[in-house]
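User: Teach me something about this protein's shape.
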Amino acid sequence: MKIVIAGGSGFIGRTLTDFLVHEGHKVVILSRSVKKGTENIRYVQWLHPGAKPEKEIGSADAFVNLAGVSINAGRWSSEHQQQIYDSRMNATDELLRIISTLSTKPSVLVNGSAIGIYPASEDTIYTESATAIADDFLAKTVADWERKAGMVSFPETRAVFMRFGVVLGKGDGALPPMVLPYKLFAGGKVGSGRQWISWMHIQDVVRAIVFAIENVHLQGPVNTTSPYPKRMNEFGKTIGAVLHRPHWLPVPSFAMKLALGQKSALVLQGQHVLPRKLLDSGFEFTFPTLESALKNILIDDV
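Assistant: First, the predicted structure itself:
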């Protein structure tokens, strides 16, 4: 296949590109700057004055939209929140424009999303059939992002919203800062410890994206998480067990709020999310359990 990726330089985008190329596909990465490609990876400039990426793309089997300012970078000041929101809306608008100009439409637009759309809860279990939406900045961003991507109004183009949980991988994403205290023998419960972490190994994340591209019956929200989420305290204990480090030094909620401001909600609150659509469609997880994922990332890949 020929697959266009917006946001190809990010954590998920880089891993997805490597996976697709390894599987023999052609990848077009939309980039703000002109870069030299390879036989199977081509860079096309976009979101730049005068850029006409549709002329270089020609046609494609699928578009994957992962573009947007990272929610993990910096404190959530009003300015940063606006950048997070606007970057997603603007990039999606441009993708919709590009697709509208193509004589042959892609079969699918796979759009990034997040489980942050669901309200934080220690008791509720969320599948894709849940209609509740949280009343906060992240949920509004996700809901508007999905609504925007869903405006791809061509009968031959499905829209799939991959609602990513906490993506675990080596050297990037959420895991390294979570592991660091344990490496320093200072790991322990964060906040109440009862908040849920719905997580997924980066390799399963990119496999799920390709699965969504290839399976024509998948559309709308797709929870992209492991079938076995963990409460924060158990998550930390599992890190400690894998690394043979103690789980003993608690980090109180007020300290996280002081350090991270509004962004502390990403750590102190959580959602119990299950990937019902993936499971019902026959997707097989390579790393379904947290222990298997952490051993692969922290031990096997050293």
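Now, about its shape. The chain has a mean pLDDT of 95. The chain has one domain: 2-300. If you'd like, I can walk through any region in more detail.
User: That's plenty for now, thanks!
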